[in-house]
Write a structure and sequence with these properties.
Layout: E1 2-7, H1 15-29, E2 33-37, H2 67-75, E3 79-85, H3 93-101, E4 112-118, H4 126-139, E5 142-149, H5 157-169
Parallel strand pairs: 1-2, 1-3, 3-4, 4-5
Helix pairs in contact: 1-5
The chain binds flavin mononucleotide.
């Protein structure tokens, strides 16, 4: 399967990235193709709400930025892993911009999604989970799993093993 991971962290060597690497190792070990897009460091603007995509643009966005790299990967994806640090109880702004920009194409091809969150504190995931489940219902997609690690757990071997095992289970 083609697995696309969107890392919303602006820290390419941060807590989220380390867990993504473990996930990738597990999934690649089973022969899956894993593309990790570091959207947290890309230049991706928020949706302008201009509706160009649904009018003249015919499904393309008027903004010419790094979404040009993301859209083709999404179009080919079988599984989508949304990965993000929790920023003020939400996704990072960078990842939220990407999610808003799904609007132009309707939805990613992937009908199987998963969520990986890291945070400083525990129990800070409710808003993101609500958004995630809302999107899945809207696009009729399935959740394969939700993985959440606070500051005490995100850097542990146990956490890495958990996400690696998840990758290997796909
Ligand atoms: C701007 C900002 C906002 C944050 N907001 C929260 C928060 O609301 N709740 C929380 O538990 N941790 C919060 N954190 C901590 C990060 O979620 C946590 O350190 C995360 O693991 C960082 O991931 P990264 O290393 O992949 O960037 C925040 C960090 C930053 C920089």
């Amino acid at each position: 399967m083609k697995i696309v991971v969107l890392n919303g962290s602006p820290r390419p060597k941060g807590n989220t990235a380390a867990l993504i690497e473990a996930f990738k190792e597990g999934a690649e070990g089973k022969g899956h193709q894993v593309s990790v897009l570091q959207v947290g460091t890309m230049k991706i603007g928020g949706c302008k709400g201009c509706e160009y995509c649904h009018t003249k643009g015919g499904g393309t966005c008027i903004q010419k930025d790094d979404m040009a790299e993301v859209y083709p990967a999404l179009a080919e994806s079988d599984v989508l892993l949304l990965a993000s640090p929790v920023y003020y109880h939400g996704l990072t702004g960078q990842l939220q911009s990407v999610v808003s920009r799904f609007y132009a194409v309707g939805a990613p091809a992937a009908k199987k999604w998963a969520l990986l969150l890291t945070s400083g504190s525990p129990n800070v995931y409710a808003a993101i989970e609500t958004q995630y489940r809302g999107i899945l219902g809207f696009i009729q997609a399935e959740s394969l799993g939700i993985f959440e690690y606070d500051g005490k757990r995100s850097g542990t071997e146990e956490a890495a093993n958990e996400v690696k095992a998840f990758g290997a289970s796909l």
